[in-house]
Amino acid sequence: MKYAWVLVLGCIAFGQDGPKPKPGVDQKAIDAAIEKGAAWLLKQEHKPWGFDTRGMMRHHELVLYTLLHAGIDRDHELFKKLLKEILETRLERTYCVSLQAMLLLELDAVKYQGRLAQCCQFLVDNQLANGQWGYGKEVPQEEITPKGGV
């Protein structure tokens, strides 16, 4: 019964359509900016995973996660290319591995459960004694392949 009251109060507070935008927020402008940013990402040259000429790590996982949230079709050529690339790349960097886990979880947790287990094991193996994470060190794939049922 108390959950019914929460629902009633929620409907009263937010109306039946959910939360109302804050005054002064132009949702059309926000949507246009997201669309413009996604279009820009789609036009960029995304070279194979690794480091660029300045020694900066490429973040295909971040690009894919951004495109996913921008609503780009999962069958888009670039989306499929980058996804294939990250799935075939060794797990080496904490940032990339954690983003990859979030991406795969949202894409299809069941389909990618093996790779998700590898990402989780990598993160566990790279957690520091104080509970934080460093940049990560490569763990050979054979060592992080889950054993037993998931």
Task: Give the overall form.
Answer: globular
Low-confidence segments: 1-13
What's the end-to-end separation, in Å?
Answer: 37 Å
How many E-type strands? 0
Rg, nearest Å: 20 Å
The secondary structure category is mainly alpha
Instruction: Compute the average pLDDT.
Output: 78
SSE sequence, one letter per element: HHHHHHH
Largest sheet: none
As a percent range, the share of strand residues is under 5%
Q: How helical, in percent, are the residues?
A: 55-70%
Number of helices: 7
Question: Would you give an account of this structure?
Answer:
Helix 2 packs antiparallel against helix 3 and helix 3 runs antiparallel to helix 4. Helix content is 57%, strand content 0%. With 150 residues, the protein is an all-alpha fold.
SSE arrangement:
Blueprint: H1 2-14, H2 27-43, H3 60-70, H4 77-88, H5 94-108, H6 113-125, H7 141-144
Helix pairs in contact: 2-3, 3-4, 3-5, 5-6
Features:
single chain; mainly alpha; disordered N terminus
Q: Could you give a quick summary of the protein structure above?
A:
By secondary structure, the chain is an all-alpha fold. 57% of the residues lie in helices and 0% in strands.
